[in-house]
Amino acid sequence: MADSEVLHAEHRLEYPYSRSTGPVIGAFLTALRDGRFVGATGSDGRVIVPPTEYDPITSDDVGELVEVGPGGVVESWAWVSHPLRKHPLQSPFAWALITLDGANTAMLHAVDAPGPDALATGTRVTARFRPEAERIGAMADVEAFVVEGGAS
Amino acid sequence: MADETTDQGPVTTLATPIRLDFDFTPGVAQSKFLRGLERGEFHGQRCSVCGKVYVPSRGSCPTDGVPTTEDVLLGNAGTVTTYCVVNVPFAGQSIEIPYICAQILLDGANLSFMGLLQEIPTDQIRMGMRVEAVWVDESDLTPSLASVRYFRPNGEPDADYDTYKEYL
User: What does the DSSP 8-state code read for residue A24?
Assistant: First the structure.
């Protein structure tokens, strides 16, 4: 049997889950859709981003939501030389833990940088949001972070 | 607070689909079976050691562990070895309930496979019933079991229990 007679087919297995966000994560995602970041105030006054629904120390409801970012500082990062199909960027990029201005916790996101030399712990970055019409209330509403004042 | 600047209302749900993309190949033996379906034919393979005919064939005999290289063209008729009447609705159901899901042993085959049985009331189905495949229109044939619309009684007398008792 010739190879050409052996069949191939794409097979997709998909579970179309949808999650309810709750009031706090929902507010965070709503803010992303508006092109902003919000964090939750904890019992010790720290600002948690992304916000949790419960205080990590007292387990009480978190306090007021406050606006943070869109700039921040890279705490730690890893360079991705060969992005995979489902990665947020298809050219080399960094996964980074970023502490947004006004926040006390770091948040994971992608940094679109020209190369690993452009990044260091402490590098200032800022969010590059997708155009408003494309934003749906999801982490991917932030296309990536970019180095402040950088070429990208 | 966040929906002050928009008329869309706050975000309350998040779509989080889980998706696995496969590039599937059925291999040489099952490709022959599927190519046969595309022509409106059932193709199997015979084991050179035990002589059993597998349809569909996986390319080897599970009993003897040898490749099955002899191709066998089977007919359109077979016997219901066992069956199930489906009365329970479930998500994604494409056939109106109740319907009959039957194990069908094609004449000349030594392996039964599952098929939809139609054109008979669900309370008249029985083990040993003789059935035949009803194919889709020639222009709709594809290398898939969807080429078989369903099986239906072919009017022959029921098969003797001894002819299919090994396949239950």
Answer: H
Q: Which of B16, B22, B31 is the closest to A18 by Cβ? A: B16
Is the pLDDT score of A127 beyond 70? Answer: yes
Q: Contact A30/B3, CB-based, under 8 Å?
A: yes
Q: Which residues contact A9 (CB under 8 A, 6 or more apart)?
A: B23, B24, B25
Whether the model clears a pTM of 0.90, i.e. scores above it, the answer is no
Q: Which residues of A touch B13 (CB under 8 A)?
A: 18-21
For residue B4, the model assigns a pLDDT of: 46
| Kind and range of the H or E run holding A23 | helix A22-33
Between CA B101 and CA B125 the distance in angstroms is: 10
Token reading at A108 = 């994971």
In chain A, residues with a C-beta closer than 8 Å to the C-beta of B21 are: 10-12
| Whether residue A18 has pLDDT greater than 70 | yes
The answer, for B2 touching chain A at a CB cutoff of 8 Å, is yes
Bridge partner residues of A77 (DSSP): A96
Inform me whether the pLDDT recorded for B1 exceeds 50: no
Answer yes or no: do A33 and B8 touch at CB < 8 A: yes
Return phi, psi of residue B42, to 5°: -100, 120
CA dihedral A141, A147, A148, A149 (to 10 degrees): -120
Distance CA B4, CA B98 (A): 52
Look at residue A91 and tell me whether its pLDDT is greater than 90. yes
